[in-house]
């Protein structure tokens, strides 16, 4: 699966839940998939154009107004199911905090502690965001058919955030030990 196929999957998937404008697709991906997936406007709008040209989505406004929402066509839903059936494309992680910690001796223990503390704060914010997403999901009757599947991704985000917080606590303790040993020498 190419990266454009993955973008098409994310866009078609978002549209399979509810018709949306391109802007709303971006907001939906950021707000609901953001814990594990991201797409930029620079990826979404070309994907929408491709999918529309291929007859996989259609604007709901017959005049084709630029602000009209898109919805998947029956062919688009069939294509989405094909894309979802393919194995996911493996991606290599890129974590700027871990990159800096790996070379942490050059940065110093205090600066590394600040990085780890920032990671903990971000994970706590992610947990709060996921709590809100879970509450919104429970309140949105239109998502009833998708809710249990969406809850699986929310739970994965919660587990990741809890793991990040636990790691941060361990890392902060280790960095305190490192700082103490460096100041003693």
Class based on secondary structure composition and strand pairing: mainly alpha
Largest sheet: 2 strands, antiparallel
What is the H/E string? HHHEEHHHHH
Radius of gyration: 21 Å
Number of strands: 2
- Helix count from the secondary structure assignment: 8
Helix content: over 70%
Query: What is the straight-line distance between the termini?
Result: 53 Å
The largest beta-sheet arranges its strands as: 1-2
Morphology call: elongated
Question: What is the percentage of strand-forming residues?
Answer: under 5%
List the helices and strands and how they pair.
Elements: H1 3-17, H2 22-32, H3 41-53, E1 57-59, E2 70-72, H4 74-85, H5 96-102, H6 104-107, H7 109-139, H8 144-184
Antiparallel strand pairs: 1-2
Helix pairs in contact: 1-3, 1-4, 2-3, 7-8
